[in-house]
Amino acid sequence: MAPPSDADPVPPGLTTLRLWASRHGRTLEAVRHKWRKQAGFPDPVGELPSRGRRGGGRGQLLFDEAALDAWLAAQAHLAPPERIDLTALRADPDDRVTLSRFAAMIGKDRKTVTQHRSRPGFPDGDPDGRYRVGDLLQYWNERPGRRTI
Fold this sequence. Notes:
Elements lengths: L13 E2 L1 H7 L4 H6 L12 E2 L13 E4 H9 L12 H4 L6 E2 L1 H8 L3 H5 L16 E2 H10 L7
Antiparallel strand pairs: 1-3, 2-3, 4-5
C-alpha cells in the first residue's frame, strides 16, 4: 500500500482508532485499552508514517473501517444506552425540578444523577436548587463517559 499524502492522511475505507472512536462517541482510551483486548477485534492493516519532529516513533495504526463497524455491531454489550426522549418524561423542557425529581423521572437513583453536578457541561441550577428539565435531559443524553464497556 502506498503511504498516504499529507493532503489525504487516511486512505478511503481505512481509519485510525482515534477517528473511529470519536465517530462512535467513545474515548480513544476506552477503544485502545478495553475494546481492542476483546476477542475478534480487527487487527491493524497498516500504519501512517510517524509525524515526530525527528521522524522517530510509530505512526498511528490504520484499521479497516468496515471490519471495525462489523465487529462493533456484533458486540451487543457495547451498545450505547438508549437516549431518553422528552415526551417519555411527560414534562415541559422549561419545567424546573430538583435533581432528585429528575432522577425519579428517568428511573435512576438520586446519587447517580447528583454525582454529575461537578462535571464539565453540567447545567447550572437556580439558587433554590432547581434545574431546567430540558437542560438536564440534554446533559444526560450527551454526558461524557457513557458506558465505555
